[in-house]
Extracellular solute-binding protein
Amino acid sequence: MKIVKIAGITAALALGVAACGGGETAEPAPAASAAESAPAASGPKFAGQTLTMWRLGDSNPPAQAYMDDLNAEFQKVTGATVKLEWIPWPQVNDKFTAAAAGGAGPDVTEIGNDQVPLWVSQEALSPITALTSAGDQAQIPKNLFGLETIDGEVYAVPWGAGTRAVLYRKDWFDELKIEVPKTWDEVVAAAKKIQEEKGKDVDGFAFNGGSDANHLLGAMAWSEGGDYAVKEGDKWVGKLTDPTFKAGFETYTGLVTSGLSGKSRLTQNTVDIRTRFANDKVGMYLTASWDIPGIETDSKGKVKADQLAFFPLPAKTGGEAPAFFGGNDIAVWGTTKNAELAQEYIKLATSKQWADRYAKDGGLLPVYPDTLASLASDPVQAPFAAAFAKARSFPADPNWTEAGETKAVLQNAARSVIEGKASADEALATANKELEDILNQ
């Protein structure tokens, strides 16, 4: 199952927006000198050594070029070579689980920031606290380390951030004279017109019912004022049966029951949707700009970036829906036999130069405040910067992955409703109990 990329603390990446839950805006630390930012290792010290690095997802030309350049620079300054392995999203949980159980793991890995508590609880990550208090890394806002800091120790460094918006076929909108939707009713109307003109086998607005389904469901539930669960004392209390969550849930399942998305594709995730989008079978879907290189590849160059654009997901209640957002971290794997070299790699990769490029090449938002501020006028990134103002997160609990992905609690609830096996009230009551049991175990 795909590791979800979210972070409840990352809202401070917004241009001046306060952190979710904390109400305080991050204060970046003073800039470090060039000497402090440079990797401390020397070539002779690590010459001849090899470091294994895991990147998550499928490679694409910009990402591969970034890694080639980063690894060449690392070899130049340390003398060590890098063995890079790309882990496809469907294999990530299995690979991490096997490595944590004593299998062959990496020295350094990319990791979704909401996954840090889970893998720390499995003793799979090594603390790297000292690395974050000096050099360029000291400029990264401290509240971006909320999910990365456990019992006073830091276990990962933010590398890039992201949120979601609606990706649409701009060329189709132009052809069919569809205005960019600003309300949910306009989204529905646009989706229906796309289907009328492009065929009923086309998803006007694609339903995501796969491993990352809660990106879409969450936005719809949050827009109604709903939430998954809240912490009361030391116990999680599920909120799936609240009328507000139910309202968003019904908008979500309505994508299929109203015919905007095909009933035969109830388990498709973002990767599946992206592939269909690249093959002219989807008009709109919720994702991030990192999908664009994949679309160009999947379509064999037939669908290009200039045919695509984004708009913020409108809330059914009016205005913009709160966006799911998160980020990618980089961490030292707990069983590495060369922790010092691994930390040198993270120090280089998360320096301002390389972290800014990682975000830019990957369609992510940068973690360095001055670079982020410059995106306010960027036509591609502006919808995502705007989405930060209302961004929300899933329950910050190590067991969320089990509920949200492995056991697919909400996905199963949605399918039972769409397939007519249960009412929304029945499905959500069952899901609420299961969610509480998982989060509180």
Notes: The domain at 165-322+407-439 is CATH 3.40.190.10 (D-Maltodextrin-Binding Protein; domain 2).
